[in-house]
From TrEMBL:
Family statement: Belongs to the glycogen phosphorylase family.
Protein name in UniProt: Alpha-1,4 glucan phosphorylase
GO molecular function, one term: glycogen phosphorylase activity
GO biological process: glycogen catabolic process
Amino acid sequence: MGRTLQNTMINLGLQNACDEAVYQLGLDMEELEEIEEDAGLGNGGLGRLAACFLDSMATLGLAAYGYGIRYEYGIFNQKIRDGWQVEEADDWLRHGNPWEKARPEYMLPVHFYGRVEHSASGAKWIDTQVVLALPYDTPVPGYMNNTVNTMRLWSARAPNDFNLRDFNVGDYIQAVLDRNLAENISRVLYPNDNFFEGKELRLKQEYFVVAATLQDIIRRFKASKFGSTDSVRTVFDSFPDQVAIQLNDTHPAMAIPELMRIFVDIEKLPWDKAWDITKRTFAYTNHTVLPEALERWPVNLVEKLLPRHLQIIYEINQRHLDHIAFLFPNDVDRLRRMSLIEEGDTKRINMAHLCIVGSHAVNGVAKIHSEIVKTQVFEDFAALEPEKFQNKTNGITPRRWLLLCNPGLAELIAEKIGEDYVRDLSQLTKLHEFVDDDLFIREVAKVKQENKVKFALYLEKEYKVKINPSSMFDVHVKRIHEYKRQLMNCLHIITMYNRIRRDPAKLFVPRTVIIGGKAAPGYHMAKMIIKLINAVAQVVNNDPMVGSKLKVIFLENYRVSLAEKVIPATDLSEQISTAGTEASGTGNMKFMLNGALTIGTMDGANVEMAEEAGEENLFIFGMRVEDVTELDRKGYNAQLYYDRLPELKQAVDQIKSGFFSPKDPNLFNDVVNMLFHHDRFKVFADYEAYVKCQEKVSELYLNSKAWTKMVIRNIAAAGKFSSDRTIKEYARDIWHVEPSDLKIPPPNEPRDAGQDKTPNGTAA
């Protein structure tokens, strides 16, 4: 979520009043804002997307709730020591959190372990361990519409009789100390992005948030006029018309068997009725196609922790496979492929399959990704129910990612086209009229220059590094992952360095290359990549032959509040994943909206950015998905590129020989070995096209006016990438609710009696 203070002031229309009031107290608002800790309760794009969605849902007047876990420790703080990443605990609640309100009156029990007893009256889950879920509510204000929604985060608490109701009379002290075991559930965020780690505590977290949330939703449903019993209809008939639940990836997939358990075991609905309601309630968003990221929980772990849920999953699977066998008699391989249970050394539950079978809608997060989901990853399921599969291209909130982080640019745009674009970003197309307006061109360039100077000052103050604000700011910030190819950027840096040294007199467009992002603590290769970048920076930044022509900065502890500083200062945005691996990306959109140009592959939302702005207004290079597929078919041979490209050979040889690690020449052996022998993401295959494309970038940067005109064309084409547009599509196509742009009256004005009736009754 990042910080809340400035976002709240902007959405409430109070920023200028607060700035002025604080100034009159002799304080500086910006200094105050810097004191607030980031709420870093997610890993990368998926978590930030949820935050943007909450802002848009409130702004569109949807009756929507965001549910999650109130981690005591969020994503780790990253320190760089001697070029290596070191993790520190993110004790973000140390000084308290003024934005949250604990709601003990809504505390709910969550059950684990135990066993299942079957009788004539149905199944009973008994002898369980209970953990209490204590909700904390954080307000989510819409933009200037007097709507405030709720984000409800659950914290784990041990019941007061924990470990004391058993025969445990003896050790009272130990029993109280053991309360920590239950409360560890909400202690810490697992720091993996795009990687599945099948740990018991993680499964506990996933079920914890799901069980508490579903009880909360059903309590709210029953308390509403819709849930009241009438003599004809079952109480829950209207449930899917009143409730929509969106599964953000497979992490909350246990919600599907949990809702079935509530309906069948507790509410005593017949299975078919319960299943119909469940399917119509859930929809599933897929966020990645990387096989290592797909959740596949061992059956024996689920059996121990959630025995009743395993039985329900087996029943769901049996009925699902019976249906497939009926449609495709004797096709055993299809049954194996489509089963929720994967056979093997350890039987596993494929959570994505569970989500597809248990949902009425499945979507990817960019056109190209949704196509891959349909035709490759889940092709058997899409063949069966093509109408179930949709696309919803991601977006970003223009409140945080323009108004808040780039007030200079936001104001400049408002002067030209009015202020309405903040709520309707498609209005940015009006900027096309000003693409040849010399004054506007100069003003856009001036705002960018001011942002660069400000960021350079910040870098100097915080990290004691001096950079040249007139150099091109070439920025690559995102989680560190092989598929995102920070290594390819690194090879380009080394290539530029070698060119400067080879011909120091030759004209070179000065660059400051800024790379930032966190590596999962257990991801060895990602940590080696960080060390390599820092080792290269060490050499480049201290070579007198290079001077101020090329500087390399590794940005420590990349997070939302740092993104808000670096993105507005960026000239060139690096979006260089191997085609077919980045589901969407959202950083790409933030840079586009803030006046950076993009160098990127035809991957994720880059494809749609090129479609909106015109491919000639982005620096697109490298293999397309088809080329990658073809190269896989032929077999990728890295050696070929190394032998054919002298500059690539030189760069790789320098890494290999210890040129960047003289004290330990073998330091980067693992990296080099990976690049030659098991590089799934084909860095060498795109190197030549990347370097050539970067030459075109430098050439255009020399012509400030032509560069800025291209920037304006990009900003004018960024309207599609508002999360407001994304949420309107979810609301229309999946949740079946109507967004309202009605501004509800403020609390100090009397409301009409008629105003109480909500036009969109469904809560998402």
